[in-house]
Amino acid sequence: MDGSGEVPLYRQIYLRFRQSIADGQLLAGERVPSVRALAAELNLARGTVEAAYQLLIGEGYLQARGPAGTVVAPLLQPIARPSPMTAENTIAPTLVHSGAVPGPLQIGLPALDEFPRKLWNRLASHELRHSGVDGLIYPDSRGDAGLRAAVAGYLGVSRGIVCAARQVFICAGYPGILDLICRSLLKEGDQCWFEEPGYFLARRFLQEAGAQLVPVAVDAEGLNVEEGRRLADDARFAVVTPSHQSPLGVSLSLPRRQALLDWANRKGSWIIEDDYDSEYRYQGRPLPALKSIDNQGRVLYAGTFSKVLAPGLRLAYLVVPEIQVERFAVMADRMHNHCPQLLQATVATFIRNGHFARHLKKMRSLYAQRRALLIDALHEHLGERLKVDQQAGGMHIVGHLPAGYDDGEVAEHARLLGLAAVRLSVCYAGSENTQGLMLGFTNVASAQQAGEVVALLAKAISSAAPVPM
Ligand SMILES: Cc1ncc(COP(=O)(O)O)c(C=O)c1O
What we know:
Strand content: 5-15%
Number of helices: 15
Helix content: 40-55%
Bound molecules: pyridoxal-5'-phosphate
Radius of gyration: 27 Å
């Protein structure tokens, strides 16, 4: 408010409301603050606000509804008019995560129809009622103590990782983990082995953090450690997805695991083990985590609740070697990037009370069925036009396109048909790549849906067929 007296204060308030209604910031039917509340907020006399409201009511912008308060007149529409911001606002940025509900075949999502909402609601309400001041003060910057203990317990039993709760750090998703690692250990220009193909979001994150990435080929046994040593034996980091290589789904073989650890032990390098969806395996026994055979503390182990619960929680965890606990704790505290306490406490109870193990068991058999539905439909509708890789686990299928196809073009045709298939070539840093598609099966709920979705995919592939020479 401008108190110079040129425009009376009540008129300034009147103009602010008029402007906000015209711009659509205040919508028809929306309740506005009471005279008393607004006067207190703006530190003005009540009579001043009262005069502005009377004018707005008189001109039909606001309606007084007695005890129900004062609202913007229900039929008022914002005035569409160019504002200096308009041009800027109409250029939509290309976002990987825009908040839009993804189309069928989206990768990396758990079954959204199977999130245990009722149970969650009960646990979250209980937490809210009983948390005392814990949920209101600044939380522990390393993560909720209960959740850190629950994660350590879960990892011991399910992944063979022996760690104490103090070694566990709760972060906002995998980017939060990478951020904490980079700020704690990475120096500008440090070399970092990165799987080729690999997880494109992590690649971009590490590059922006100042790492010098060295693409290292992945074959049927996972990351080719020999090649890594040949290309950059002195690298300070290696980022790997040993359980299900992202995106190809292969497991890092035991000899390669040993070779990788030997290299890290000798060189004093760090291995970032991204164990993002190891919980899902449909044949055979899950391989223990690389971290479980890390005797010299060279592995930084990353897990996430995005795949086993929901990515909207933005909760992930990092296990650091004992000797690094203090350094990471100081950095986590400096970052001051805490995850919501009540959410963390709810997940802790979910694990502690046995719901997590039950949920995982249920999801494992559900995903095995959904995976089969999609694979059957792909065979039926696409045959040789998409060669499906039958990996033992994970949450997506990789399909390879025949020679001559451009996977970017196929993915674009699929997008126009409402599908969320992602091109495989996005996972490669180099120009030599494989043309294919990554297809999420976790939300394919029936044979009929699988058939419909794959029929659309077949259309997209036909539309992108290479023109014969
Ligand atoms: C390879 C890989 N690592 C980690 C993650 C976990 O990411 P976040 O915890 O940020 O959801 C994902 C999610 O898609 C992934 O694909």
